[in-house]
Amino acid sequence: MHLNPSASPTFVQVHLEDTGAVQAELVAGLIGTGARIAPKFLYDALGSRLFDAITELPEYYPTRTEASIFAQHGQAMASRVAPGSVLIDLGAGSCAKAAGLFPVLNPGGYVAVDISVDYLREALGTLQDRHPDLPMLGLGQDFSKTFALPDAARTWLSGRKLARAPRTVFYPGSSIGNFSPEEALDLLRQARVVCQSGGAGGGVLIGVDLVKPAGLLEPAYDDSLGVTAAFNRNLLLNVNRWLGADFQPAEWAHVAFFDAELSRIEMHLQARAALTVRWTGGERRFAEGERIHTENAWKWRAEDFSALLQEAGFGPASHWTDASSWFGVFWAPAAS
Ligand code: AVJ
Fold it and tell me: What positions does the domain Histidine-specific methyltransferase SAM-dependent occupy (predicted)?
């Protein structure tokens, strides 16, 4: 019997952290003075679906603005991205953005990386049915601290004669905004190493939300339907599962604001009344109004982001924006 090796996507789970390490990270964030929970906990299966709903909200401009930039400048981007390259999609989610670019970018392989494993598995399966001849690999991986291709991915690439294909690291949606400038620099340096391990012509294609007045930014993170509030509160249900905790989402208010000085949106959950949260092996009292910091979304000036790419070792960056310069898509070659 002959099985077409690309008929269904390969899947590799790189969960380096065991349950104990995740729990320790959560508890460490909860017991300090400024309580915090990392934004990656927003993305369980329901969280990923709520985020998809956010992208359709009238107030949430980034997704559709970025899509309009891809639609208008896709050909110009394609002239930079080597055809036949391996598209490495960070935080692939529904894989919809990358899939929309397959016809323009003509990749030779597709590697989808996401922490939300079950969601990715489903999305990638559907996508493979639509593109039966494109080799696809799913990586269940948390790249928020370090990013490198695992051995299994390199073996997979070799097995499909893609080891020497150029590599394009695709990081759309302004997810890089979750990283502080220092962390973003670190991630970009690691992305460059990944690109340079492939054939010549690789680089990064990355979507970045640009600085704009608070009156435009804040509604995008505090919409009138309350979807973002639900997305933020859902993190507590996810934490309840990880820790055996008893967070009651209804006791927490969604708070989002732009800090112009730090150039970032901050999201918090604020206790509506004094309360105590208990989990297996611990508890924490919160005063009324006390907050848990759940997300930062940094906003960049285009020139600062180009400079960051250069500092990370990339060659001269190009970027494309919409008519109002709300959002930028940057290309930078790995070779300096
Ligand atoms: C997925 C990180 C790009 O910051 O805009 C949306 C996440 N948080 N609404 C963003 C998010 C609240 C989103 N990123």
Answer: 23-332
Phi and psi at 211, nearest 5°, equal: -60, 135
Mutate to test the pocket of ligand 1, among 37, 57, 94, 175 (most ligand atoms within 8 A of CB): 175
- What CATH number did the domain enclosing 319 receive? 3.40.50.150
Phi, psi of 305 (to 5 degrees): -70, -40
pLDDT in tens, 112-152: 999 878 888 989 999 999 999 999 999 998 888 889 999 99
Is ligand 1 within 6 A of the CB of residue 228? yes
Question: What is the 42 CA–ligand 1 centroid distance (Å)?
Answer: 10
pLDDT for residue 102 is more than 60? yes
Instruction: Please tell me the total count of domains within the chain.
Output: 1
Distances in whole angstroms, Cα of residue 291 to Cα of each of 180, 229, 247, 274, 295: 20, 14, 13, 11, 12
pTM of the model: 0.93
Q: Which of 41, 49, 54 to mutate to test the pocket of ligand 1 (most atoms within 8 A of CB)?
A: 54
